[in-house]
Amino acid sequence: MQEESIGKMNLLNKFWYFETGVPLHFCEEIILSAQDKGVVDGVTDDIKREDIVRLSKQKKNTRNSKVCFLNNKWIIDQLEPFFWDANKQAGWDFSISHYETCQFTYYDGQEKHFYDWHLDAGQEPYKEGYCKGTIRKLSMVVLLNKPNDFEGGQLEFDYRNKINPKIDRAPLTKQGSCVVFPSFLWHRVKPVTKGFRYSLVVWATGEKYK
């Protein structure tokens, strides 16, 4: 890709893709773990669970999907090398120190589930918890089921470049494929129109940019 200006940063590589990605048995274990735990409505920002009903109509204009959170060391052990490899190979060289709880997401084609344009990175470092004092630096999306299990559901990036506007699509073409990208990039998951899409989202954090 040619270099384009994104905010105050110039990135030669906007995302880094692993076609083979993680083993199939890892994908199946994640799906089973999520099914055992159960899924709930996905929310945006810091919406509290008790506010979900009140804000459900507003929320679904931006996001409509089901999620659960998995805090298992074996998941991070499997995915951490992909973060480090992408961070180096893409030339970002971000300072990474922590990993957040992993998010399993279920998109149902009958419900036309989607997640519209958004950023993963917050404006300020976390004020509490395990990642206190850090911000999201890198995001990873892993496709957990087969692409022919669903229609739609493409992961896309919008670089918000007025001079050379462009939307890229992540080539998640196989079960286990994964993509890593800076958390300050605008991205979306287009509506799933048929079948179901399972994915895992993980965030790597580090000290605030200087």
Descriptive key words:
single chain, 210 residues, alpha+beta, five-stranded antiparallel β-sheet, 19% helix
What does this structure look like?
- This protein has a domain at 1-6 and 102-201: q2cbj1_9rhob like domain (Jelly Rolls, Sandwich).
- The protein is 19% helix and 36% strand.
- It contains three helices and 16 strands.
- It has helices at residues 24-37, 52-59, 73-89, and strands at 4-6, 9-11, 16-18, 40-41, 63-64, 66-70, 98-99, 102-108, 114-118, 135-143, 150-152, 155-158, 167-169, 178-182, 186-189, 192-206.
- The strands form three sheets. Strands 3, 4, 6, 7, 8, 10, 11, 14 and 16 form a nine-stranded antiparallel beta sheet that branches.
- A hairpin with a 2-residue loop joins β1 and β2 (9-11).
- The chain is globular and about 45 Å long.
- Residues 1-8 and 46-56 have low confidence and may be disordered.
The radius of gyration computed from the alpha-carbon positions, rounded to a whole number of angstroms, is: 16 Å
Number of strands: 16
* CATH domain class name of the domain at 1-6 and 102-201: Mainly Beta
CATH architectural designation of the domain at 1-6 and 102-201? Sandwich
Query: How much of the sequence is in beta strands?
Result: 35-45%
Mean pLDDT: 88
Structural class call reads alpha+beta
User: Low-confidence runs (pLDDT<50, min 5 residues)?
Assistant: 1-8, 46-56
**Main sheet specs:** 9 strands, antiparallel
